Amino acid sequence: MSIGWSLRPILALFLLVLVLRPEWFAPMLAPLAPEGGPVIYERASLLSLSLSHLALVAAASAAAVVVAVTLAILVTRPSGAAFRPVSRTVANMGQTFPPVAVLALAVPALGFGAGPTLVALFLYGLLPIFENAVTGLSNLPPATMEAARGIGLNRWQRLVRVELPLALPVILTGVRLSVVIAMGTATIGSTVAARTLGEVIIAGLLTNNTAYVVQGGLVVGLFAVLIYDAMVQLERRLAARVGL
Amino acid sequence: MIQDRVAGTVSPPGVLFAMLGVAALLTPFMTLAANRIVAGEGVMAWAVAAPALVAPGLLAVAAGLLLGVPAGKPWLRLFGSVLGLSGLLWLLMQGAPALLDGEGGYARVSPAIGFWLLLVILSLLLADTLTALAPGPWMRLGFLAVASAVLGVVLWSGALADLSVMQEFSSRRDAFLREALRHLGLAFGSLATATVIGFPLGILCHRRAGLRGAILPVLSFLQTIPSLAMFGLMIPILGWVGDAVPGAQDLGIAGIGFAPAFLALVLYSLLPVVGNTAAGLAAAPPAALEAARGMGMTPLQRLLRVELPLGLPIILTGLRIVLVQNIGLAVIAGLIGGGGFGTFVFQGLNQTATDLILLGALPTVALALAAAIVMDALVDLTRRTPKGTP
């Protein structure tokens, strides 16, 4: 599932121009703005909002990867097996919690700003990564595991050199799901005063300025699609390397 | 050796839950605030009411956590988790009126961090025991019905009417009912529409691999677009349709409101419906298809009598994903005037009124959980051959 080689650079270029030179699009967006109202969002530069948005997603996802993979390793060892059923139920049921609700519920506990958004992104991001990591680490080919034991690898070596590399493509699928959700939830994060691209859309909704809404929507939509595409490509490469 | 014997009689998750539960009891259980906006002051669980009233609740919570410790007794642990949850409810029911007593008309009491932590811990214990019991689909539906009935009776009886979130509810009872119906209309209506469009598309995708390769990638990119952007981008499109097509505005098609929210939800729903329909139809074993062909079935008969029944669990799984996802996403409709529980969530965020946020968020979460449990049970019921039998 890729955009195809021809479309990808065009979309990337479009996004780049949209973020760096939004004023070039003013003539096209002008009909959508209210009469005499501003066309291009100028309260903050789209570049700084994009960077802040991406930083939020990257920080939350990185933390989620570390914690979720560690937890998945623990429950797939014999000593942590007792926690496995309950952790799977939690991962399964937890994902039915709407991301918006998680964000809204984080506000009473943590107040407004980037803090609750980061926590909501992190907590929600854990679940798909954990679920996929447990699946990946428990469905390893028995023959390979036997061979790893046979050549005298100890438990730590087996984990680092055999199990994790084999499970990596499945884990990455979980990371991709969690990054896609994080991009969306971070956008809504601007309703709790986090600095993200959602700010542009919200400003447009509040002032009835559809030009802002389209601008913000296009930028964040293109970022999401291109990041998703990049991660699909990465997964394919890795899967080809481990021979799945 | 001793360790082994202990490990055999003690459930490690149970021990963890008990330890976390004791720690949670040492955090504020409820808050008392002068009005609905300001931050409140925390009150510990044993101080929310007179000792004689608090003691049964505290004992029930402690006993519940303790009963969760022994291993290999799932029914006892189930009883423990239910006992603990009842204790929490008891403490809220006793604490709210006692704390409000003599505090003036604007004072508000809400559950605090301690309550929420204990609720999560005891629910985890419940989840752990239920996983061990591995109830069948009918039993799971039964548990859900009992839990919903108990929750309904407690809320109906007014036992929790003194809590701030219930006061928010009683001051906007009509609006709550209207937005609840709106929310259900958005979630189920978009599911129905997506099924009507997506199901034939899925059959076509199953029959023609070329079409499948063209449609599914487009749908999966649609699904990656952040919800707020998707809802926002629908506004100019539907605004244009409303202006350009005569009669469209009379049907309620306009730039803001219900229509853009509905369309955005339908677009998000198409991937799971189309993808899972195609995957479900492809799941019929070649031998079954060969036999059907041998019996002289036409392609339509094969579809209706062989491929559809065998693929039904996978198709229903797609609908489960859509329903749970749309119940959550419908919250965003509150931002573009589309109504639903999101109205309360975003009003609450604007007014920094925590309990108004809860009034929108808690029903959404409950609805999503219930939908997941019901749909999972339906998926299990449609499996012709239960797991584990050849």
TrEMBL record, chain A:
Compartments where located: Cell membrane
GO terms under cellular component: plasma membrane
Domain ABC transmembrane type-1 per the UniProt entry, residue ranges: 50-231
Bilayer topology annotation: Multi-pass membrane protein
GO-annotated biological processes: transmembrane transport
UniProt keyword terms in alphabetical order: Membrane, Transmembrane, Transmembrane helix, Transport
Transmembrane segments: 49-75, 96-115, 164-192, 212-231
Main location: membrane
Sequence similarity: Belongs to the binding-protein-dependent transport system permease family.
Protein name per its UniProtKB record: ABC transporter
Source organism of this protein record: Thalassorhabdomicrobium marinisediminis
